[in-house]
Amino acid sequence: MKSKAQVSERFRDFDANLTTRPWIVIGMGLRKFGQIMKFKNYGLWSLIVIVYLFALVRFILFADSENYPCMDMGDEYQRCVPLDYYGDFFTQGGTRIFLISIAAIASGGVIGNDMANKSIHLYLSRPISRLDYLIARFIPVFLIMILVTLVPNIMIFTSMWSDSGLKTDWLLDHKWLIFDLIVQAMVYSTGLAIIGLTFSTAIKKENPASAAFFLFIYGSSTICEIFFIALKVIEVDGADFILLLSVSHLLDCISFAIFDAKYYVMASGFPWETDISNIQIGAVFTVIFAGCSGLMYWMIQQMEANK
Amino acid sequence: MKQYGALKALDDFSIDIPEGKVGILGPNGAGKSTFVKIALGLLTATSGEITVLGEKLTKNTVDIRRKIGYMPEHDCIPNEMTGVEFLIEMGMVSGMSLSGATERTHEILGHLRMGEEKYRLISEYSGGMRQKIKLAQGLIHAPEVVFLDEPTSGLDPNARREMLETINGLTDVSNTKVLLSTHILQDVEMVCDSVIMVKDGKLQMQEDVKTIIGEKSNFIHIRIGGSKEDFIAELKKKKITAEDNGRVLIVPYKDDSTYDQIIDATIKSKCPLYEMERTSQSMDSVYQEIIK
To answer: A123 touching B, CB under 8 A?
Structure first.
């Protein structure tokens, strides 16, 4: 009886000692990252291993520090390792198909599962706002994408430095590259994570959301490329802008801008020239990603109001 | 006021909710869940303002939820987690540390008398256990007040009784205030100290449960022969109003002299008195009267 009374008193006087909102959000994000990265997620782990093996073989074992990061291709164009890394597997020997697959698997169920089992209502009844929730769900996908974008590129960078004999001069000459690699990885990771989460929110089912995201990114890329080349062949003005309708080409445009390289599309074995200004690229990027974020927020708000 | 297009979910709804265990009672679609969601800051009122635990919600919508627990009406717990994992996650989403959430989870599950099953996947839980876990997540962060939205929804009578006892037990032991939204009258009678009745988004009544069941609802049921009209007229002369519900006449009980006045009226109206019984009008009849 005495022990029961003590338990009740401790239960009644329990001090939850709650932390602040930013820590709640970061904690939610990291726990979800841990859940997604469990070893039982064989598909995701297989793709991550493939990306690392591919980076090792394609960009480290057969790379040359003399031509790192970029080498000239004729008078106008440059071929850069960090740009090729994100490129199409079939035309540039890049990891794009794997990166999109990883983003699809990682993001598919993140919000969709919460909406399907309605646990989103419980999360939103806690001391976090809808925006906090979206950030908490963005963090794990972003971190997974960083793991397969930035980390391999830093490994390639380190390998090239090692290849140069670990010279301090080489490091100082290439310190700008670290910043560019970080910005480039953040743009790709943010872009793919936000669009992946939008599909997850809209479709509310993990596997269909992943499949729809993959088809959307890869499908729109292929379709836009076909139309782009067709319009180029018949010399239609403004054909370049069709590339902005494809997320992967839009991200490539930003990537080339980060490295101050002239953007071209590799198709049929040779580069196709484009002429899109940075302002146009920035505007489309802003519209698409603000639109996706706004759409997710709206869909969650609607679900909340309607149970 | 809360308006969805042309539909007014809450209209002219001004109320000061007392401390303790309060029930919001009303038929389906009365606006109970809307009220709870507005109080939680999940929905914004079209007009008007709401103060929860002394803080205006317009200014402090998110942080106020540190002091509030919420148990939604519908099933909303993830099947792929165990009871323990789910409660720890909910504790941490509320801002608790891992050790704090773990400790509290095991304490609450102990109060819920859940043994080994707390380590089983929630998908294997019965309806009653799922409701208990839903209640537990609302209390995990030791809130000052917990909002319970239809907590006995979908439960069989035994599970319902057990759930209500659990609510009483857990909230008593943790000294948590309760706002219980339900359309089931017995839930309010069993758990709450006071009740707010709502219909079509409008406040109909706010009263102490004991007052409704006890003092205020004392009546005498009378069955007589002869002319009811004459009998009622005699009562009127004594300033007693009688209501004819078809089967019996209902007369409010003031004190024992009411019996004498009734007998006197039967004599004067020459109506034979067959039956006279003092009854407490149940909350059910008050509720039925309000929602009809």
So the answer is: yes
Residue B281, pLDDT score = 61
Residue in A17, A20, A118 nearest the CB of B97? A17
Tell which of B38, B60, B62 to mutate to test the A interface (max A CBs under 10 Å).
B62
Contact B95 A20 (CB under 8 A): yes
Q: Do A10 and B107 touch (CB under 8 A)?
A: yes
Residue A16 and residue B100: Cβ atoms within 8 Å? yes
Residue B46 above 50 pLDDT?
A: yes
pLDDT at A1 over 50: no
ipTM above 0.90, yes or no: no
Any CB–CB contact under 8 A between A119 and chain B? yes
- pLDDT tens digit string along A167-183? 899 899 888 999 999 99
Asked whether the beta carbons of residue B93 and residue A128 sit closer than 8 angstroms, the reply is yes
Nearest to A184 by CA among A261, A101, A287, A269: A261
A255 token code pair = 């990537």
Mutation site for A-interface testing, chosen from B10, B76, B150 by largest number of A Cβ within 10 Å: B76
B104 → closest Cβ in A14, A19, A118: A14
| Residue pLDDT, tens place only, A86-102 | 988 887 788 999 999 99
User: How far apart are the CA of A3 and the nearest CA of chain B, in angstroms?
Assistant: 13
pLDDT in tens, A46-70: 999 999 999 999 888 877 777 788 8
Which amino acid belongs to residue A256?
F
Q: B180 in helix, strand or coil?
A: strand
Residues 142-181 of chain B whose Cβ lies under 8 A from any Cβ of chain A: 142, 173-175
The reply to whether A16 touches chain B by the CB within 8 Å rule is yes
B65-94 pLDDT, tens per residue?
A: 888 899 988 888 998 899 999 999 999 999
∠ at Cα B128 (B125, B133), nearest 5°?
70
What three-state secondary structure class fits B243? strand
Secondary structure in 3-state letters for A73-94: ECCCEEEEHHHHHCCCHHHHCC
Per CB-CB distance under 8 Å, the chain B contacts of A126 are 65, 90, 93-95
DSSP per-residue codes, B65-132: GGGEEEE-SS----TTSBHHHHHHHHHHHTT--HHHHHHHHHHHHHHTT--GGGGSBGGG--HHHHHH
All domains of chain B in start order, with CATH: 2-212 (3.40.50.300), 218-280 (3.30.70)
**Any alpha helices (H) in chain B, and if so which ranges?**
32-40, 83-93, 98-111, 127-139, 157-174, 185-191, 209-213, 228-237, 257-268, 283-291
> How confident is the model over B42-64, as a mean pLDDT?
77
